[in-house]
Each structure stands twice: as structure tokens, then as C-alpha cells.
Amino acid sequence: xxxxxxxxxxxxxxxxxxxxxxxxxxxxxxxxxxxxxxxxxxxxxxxxxxxxxxxxxxxxxxxxxxxxxxxxxxxxxxxxxxxxxxxxxxxxxxxxxxxxxxxxxxxxxxxxxxxxxxxxxxxxxxxxxxxxxxxxxxxxxxxxxxxxxxxxxxxxxxxxxxxxxxxxxxxxxxxxxxxxxxxxxxxxxxxxxxxxxxxxxxxxxxxxxxxxxxxxxxxxxxxxxxxxxxxxxxxxxxxxxxxxxxxxxxxxxxxxxxxxxxxxxxxxxxxxxxxxxxxxxxxxxxxxxxxxxxxxxxxxxxxxxxxxxxxxxxxxxxxxxxxxxxxxxxxxxxxxxxxxxxxxxxxxxxxxxxxxxxxxxxxxxxxxxxxxxxxxxxxxxx
Length: 382
Ligand code: MG
What we know:
Strand order of the largest sheet: 4-3-2-1-5-6-7
Distance between the termini: 57 Å
Shape: globular
Bound molecules: magnesium ion
Number of strands: 12
Helix content: 40-55%
Strand content: 15-25%
Number of helices: 15
Mean pLDDT: 95
Largest sheet: 7 strands, parallel
Structural class: alpha/beta
Oligomer: single chain
């Protein structure tokens, strides 16, 4: 059976790897539509031609793209990805980075498309809204940790889960005691994973693991008290589930997103040779250690905002997006990223605790968080 795919964020890290999977498996997949911000128009045009797509969604450089792709329907404007997500297909892969991915996720679910979700912010910013629309097996995880948990839970009874254990590589500063002088270049050099810049910075602060704890809560319906994160520098064991009988099931493969992407695209089937397997002719040492929560306060903060719920996870994420931008732009120190997020959460915790009603609600909360973050950054004044 050949599956029709829509790929959102096609020029980003997840989108590019998904298209490599499609190219290697033309018998399994056809791409009907792509969307991208449009900041890399040459790559988007090349992808659209190569995969003979019918529709392309962009928010930038639309004339250039339109001229280069005669016969292709080009949807433009700020809601292009949301419109493309609603095109009827078998699977929409949401590889957008940031909470701008939420509206497309909701649109895809409403159009009855299956969603392969790499956009964790959809669940962090609007988890309740997403869950209210997702039917059984309609929302499939692409994040490697969540794919691992999903695989470990196959056929298991949810009531027999004792804990979900997410693994974290620990990022480049796992063993560095003083994080105050970290440079942008150092934060962008991830030891085991090759990813987009925002996720890479979030991995260095461990904000990414905090977002993933919230993502796991929504995906698997497990309380925060039963979700842990630990350090596993080799990034081979992607996460684990501990059961009530003391047994733990883990999923392992060398660090490569093609495994989780291909499983979500081809579920319930696996894609042959999607990624290399572990080479058992070699010796391996896998190590696991608790996270130093003093040096990485993002974990406790994420748990706290997750448990409080309402709009606070959206605040956490939006404030972080602003702080990461300021760090990359050279106006904020590395350790000030999470300090800023924490200060924004403190200042808004009283006003956003109610249940989320709709997308407009999320947007208003995020706008508040971004404004509060910018005001704090002005005070830092670098
Ligand atoms: Mg991950």
C-alpha cells in the first residue's frame, strides 16, 4: 500500500530526513504536499520538483517559488502550513519547530488525517486542545524518546506502568560545572544528535527534556509524578518503561531520527533498513546517571508548569523561544535562558491557570509570555 504524505517543515532537519526515507521507499510513500517557511526557497523548489508534489505552502518568498514551480498550487501567507495540513492524505508529518506548529496539528486532526508529530510544542502549548481532537492511533509520536516509550508500551496495559523514564544525552555541558560563560558556538555543538538550532540549544539547557516530559504526559496520559528523565550520554537507549512487576522495557538503536520518523509514517509496520542497527560485533558501554537538577533547573520548572497545567506550559515554551533567540543574538547569557523563563512563569502563574478553550486562548497567553520575556530582557539591558 502506498501512503500519501503531507510534510510540514520540509526544509528543516526532520523534513529533509523524512524525504530521504520517501526517496528510498517509493513503493511505500508518495508526497502530495510540502510546506516550509520559505527561508530556504532553493531547497523547497528542489524538493517540490523531485517529489512531483501538487501543493506547496510557504510564508516567505512566494513569488520566487510560484515562478519556479509552474503547475504546482502555491498556498501562501501566515496560515499556509495550516491549510496544507488540512489536505486529505494518509499521514501529515509535522516537522515544524516551535508552537506555530500547533494550528497545523489541530487542522490535520480535524481533517481526519493521521498526524506523525515531531512538533512537541503542539502538545506543550495546546495539549488539552490536541487531545480533545485526536482519535485513537491518530496522533503518533516522532520524538525519539516518545517513539521508544510508544514501542515499549505496545500491547501493554496502561494500568501496569509504574514509570516512564526518558533518556537525555545531557547535551554538550553534561560534565561542565560552570555554565555561566557558555558561548553560542559551544551550545550549538551537540555531542550525539544532529538537529535544528533551537532544539540543539534546548538540549544544552535541558529545556528540551522538560518539554518532552510535558509531551510524554499528554501522549501517554501518565501523571508527572511517574515520569522521570535521566542522563544517558550515548543516546542509544531512547527511553524506557518500568512496569509494576519491576521489569523495564527499553528501545535501542544508534542515534538517528530516521527510525522514529519511518515508524510513524508507516505504522503499524516498520520500514526495512530505516536506520542502522546496533553493531553487536563491537563492545559497547551504556551509562546512565541522574540529572543534576541544580545545574539544569529546566527539568524541575517543566514539571512544575506541567502539573499546574492551564496555560503555564505554553508560557514556559514561549518565554523560552524568546530567551533562546536573545542568547543566539548575543544579548543573554546561557544560564540566563532558564532564569528568564522561570521569571516569566512566576510573573504569569496567577493569570493563566484556567483551562485552555481554543487556539486564540493559546495565542493570547503566548503573546503575554513573549511580552513579559522581552520586558525582562530589556531590564538585563545588554
Ligand atoms: Mg527528543
